[in-house]
Amino acid sequence: MNTSHSVELVPCDDPRTLAVDIGGTGIKTMVLDEFGHPLSERLRDPTPKPATPEAVLETIAGLAERSGDYERVAVGFPGVVRRGIVETAPNLDPSFAGFPFAERLACRLNHPVRVANDADIQGFGAIRGEGIEMVITLGTGMGSAMFADGILVPNLELAHHPFEDGKTYEDWLGQRSLEQIGQDAWKAKLGNAIDLLRRIFNFDRLYIGGGNARLLDTAKLPGDVEVVANVSGLLGGIALWTDLNGTRLIRSPNAEGAHCLLEPRVVSSAAERQPAS
Fold first, then answer.
1. Do residues 111 and 7 lie in contact, with contact meaning Cβ atoms separated by under 8 Å?
2. Mean per-residue pLDDT for 123-133?
3. pLDDT class for 153, splitting at 50, 70, 90?
4. Facing residues of 66 across strands?
5. The domain 1-277: what is its CATH number?
6. Which residues neighbour 112 within 8 Å (Cβ) at sequence distance 6 or greater?
7. Order of strands, edge to edge, in the sheet holding 225-227?
C-alpha cells in the first residue's frame, strides 16, 4: 500500500478517490468522496487477455478518463502486493511478478496511488469492525481476508492452501471448478469450506463477495455468513486513504461497512495523509 514518490498528493479540502477493482474478467472503477460515498457510476471494462501489466494499466487509464475528476487512486489487486510492488497475481499474466504497480500507475494517471489485495478492500467495504471477521471472494479465483476488531491481517492468501482431495480452496471454488462440477457440487464444496473455516478461525462473521456470490441462496446460508454486494470492492478503497487503514475502525452507529464514516475527524487532512519522504 505505497504511494509513488514521483507523484505528490496535492492538498485538497474534499479529495476525491478513484477506486479501482481488478478482477480476472473485469476491471471496475468508481469515484468516491472523502468519506467513501459514491460520486460517480460504476464503470466496467473487460480484463484484457493476456492480462499483462501494460494492458491492465491501459484499461485502467481508459476507465479513469471516463470517471470524472479525482485527486488520488485506491486499487484492489488480485494478489499479494507489498509496498506497491506485486508479488503474486495468479489469475493475471505471470509478468506481473515484481512489477512496481503503484508507481507505474501513478505515473500513468499523474495521481498518487495506493494498492492492496482486492479481498482486503472488499473487507473494508463490508466489515463491522467487531470481533473476528473473514471475507472470501468467489470469481475467477478465490480471495480471502481476515480482520480482528477492524484491524486487517494482510495477504492471507487462503485460496492456495490445501482444502480437499489434494486440491486447494481455489481449485474447488474458482470459476473453472464451477464450470466443471456444476453449481450443486460447487455449492456443496463451498459449504464444506465454510464449515472448515469456522473450525479453524472461529470467525464471528464471514462475508462472501465476488461475481459468483450471486449464485448463492442467502436464505440457506448459516446465520454467521453474509453475501455482500460487489460494489464493496470499490467502496472499501477509501480505507487506503483514511485513518481506517491498519487501525481499529471508528464507526457511526448505523454504518454498514468500513467505508461509512460520519465524523470528519476520522479522516486526516490531506497534508497528514502524505507519506513520509
1. yes
2. 89
3. confident
4. none
5. 3.30.420.40
6. 3, 4, 7, 8, 9, 72, 73, 106
7. 151-153, 142-148, 132-138, 205-209, 225-227
Per-domain residue ranges of the chain? 1-277
Task: Give the three cell numbers for residue 66.
Answer: 471516463
Q: Hey, which residues does 206 pair with through a beta bridge?
A: 134, 225
Do residues 84 and 98 touch, judged by C-beta distance below 8 A?
A: no
- Give the integer Cα–Cα distance in Å for 173 and 143: 10
Q: What is the pLDDT of residues 4-28, one digit of tens each?
A: 345 666 566 789 999 999 999 999 9
**Helix/strand/coil for 191:** helix
> What's the whole-model pTM score?
0.83
Say if strands 43-46 and 132-138 run parallel, antiparallel, or are unpaired.
Answer: unpaired
Sign of the alpha-carbon torsion through 63, 66, 68, 69? positive
Closest CA to 237 of 78, 88, 31: 31
At residue 243, the pLDDT reads 65
- Dump pLDDT digits (tens) for 201-237: 999 999 999 999 999 999 999 999 999 988 999 999 9
